[in-house]
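A reminder before we start the practical. When you read a complex entry, don't treat the lines as separate problems. The point of joint prediction is that each chain is placed relative to the others, so the output describes one connected object in space. Small molecules and nucleic acid strands, if listed, are placed in the same frame. In the example below there are two entries. Take a minute to note the order of the lines before looking further.
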Amino acid sequence: MLPKLCGADIELGNFTVGKGSGRSTGGEASRALLREIDGLPRRTGYYATGYSAYQYKTAGYDYEYGGYGYNPQDWGRKWLTNGSCVYIDLDHLELCLPEVISAYDHVAAWHAMLRIARRAQTAANGKLPAGQKYQVLINNSDGQDHSYGSHLDFLITRKAWDAIFQRKLHPLLFLAAFQASSIVYTGQGKVGAENGRPPVSFQLTQRADFMETLVSAETTFCRPVVNSRDETLCGRAAIADSASKNMARLHVIFFDNTLCHVASLLKVGVMQIILSMIEAECVGRDLLLDDPLLATILWSRDPTLQARSRMLSGAQLTAVELQLLFLESARKFVANGGCDGFVPRAGEILDLWEDTLVKLKARDFTALAPRLDWVLKLRTLVRAMQQRAALTWDSPEIKHLDHLYSSLDLSDGLYWAYEKADLVERIVSHEQIEHLTQEPPDDTRAYTRAMLLRKAGPEKVDDVDWDMIRLSEMDSGSRWPVNRTVDLADPLAFTRAETEKLFREDASLSEILDALEIPDCDKAIVQSAGHQTKYLN
Amino acid sequence: MIQRERNNDREPEQTQQPTAPAMPSQSLNNTREAAERFLAAGDDAINRALSANSEDFLAANRQAGGQ
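Here is the predicted structure of the whole assembly.
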């Protein structure tokens, strides 16, 4: 088994209000936002030419946004010194969180990235003419049949990955049943239906309308409940001793963006526990749904939480009842030490999960509003309609409020109004969030990546990916740069405890690389670094 | 802990406003007051949002499909 390290790659809704042109403004909005975020530019396309980044710089190419290379799903990627990165994916600003092990750190890192994006939004809006505004929504659909993802990434063993996708059916169905029923606490809530689904007033999740199959590797169409994209981001699998040999990344595209701390914590923390159970082959066959996709759609459309879906056993369960069965099984697993060393604070996560499910079963929505986004949003919308008799679920004003629930801007985001009034439950403090806007997590490779970027600076950083950094220094004895590649294949290594001592103030970059035992590459242009860059998240 | 129930398949019910289960009147009053205080905190934000032109906002919000 492996610690359930977690990352995330999250697209935001972005557009310009006040232009009145009638055309899509997502591209200009996302570029304006990205421009305001400090980070080390990452190039696309130069591998194909064999030219180094140094030559691109000296040749005067538009280095900031990728030279001539263009990939609409990975444009202008910048790496930040808090271990994260940002880029543009199909006209959406995408925030990629640094790798963390604790679900609590995930919540802090997520809100830290939102603060970084908000500061960019404020700066970008300051440059717009009066009457215009870059609007950013932390949601997953525009209400006009377009969806964008809030993806989570979990480290699992290669053996578990193979079991889920290549060898057995019940781990896949176990995972799908868990995810489908988890929408009772992971959904953000949405007004209406999209993607050709039948009309509905309100549903628990934004993504359910866009789930079209049980399993596939796709992310932009025919989206699956369980995504089978196999992309480890753990170095070259071809190297026999590579960390990636026994590692895999589970790419989860199912969930909504959540703002409530509790919902965000449970979304990651409970998933960590469930994945540990799958790794340990502790997969109860009585928890499998007959049709996880249909159950997702059915349960999403029932805010009363009474709809039942058929289990393989023939039983008919509500989503909350199924989640309680998962909880019961997870309790035994954790009590037997199943999560020890793999899921930090698993006991606390279990307690919060149980308390939330008990409240859901009792439909105690007053108690749940401070911790679950869909409940908070639904209550807000119902109140707005109660206070304005002319409004109905079909009113544009109600869909407007639906979107503004997740607005990033503190001045119009409904979630932030409740947070400001101290009415939503906090899992992490303001200080913990602010810390991660500047600093990387301590206990993953994100620490060393961030520290190397700081030490090298933009002139010496040639290329960056999650599992490598290539640095380039001019050799005093020749015209050519010396390239050195830092292999960060193992996401659980290169932690602060392991490498902090190397980054003392008076240490040179070469000394640090020597201490990390990074061999010189060569003194010629790196025709082929051998490293296959992985642009898609 | 959990008693499974076997019912016939049925279509999802129409959206309803979630309702709290029955409880003693004093407790119910306290809960209502708490809920009222909670929701009142969002009133200013709702009012601000609804002072803008919702149709213009929705028209501008057309996104590209993403992942």
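Discuss with your neighbour: Chain A touches chain B through 89 residues (CB under 8 Å). What might explain this?
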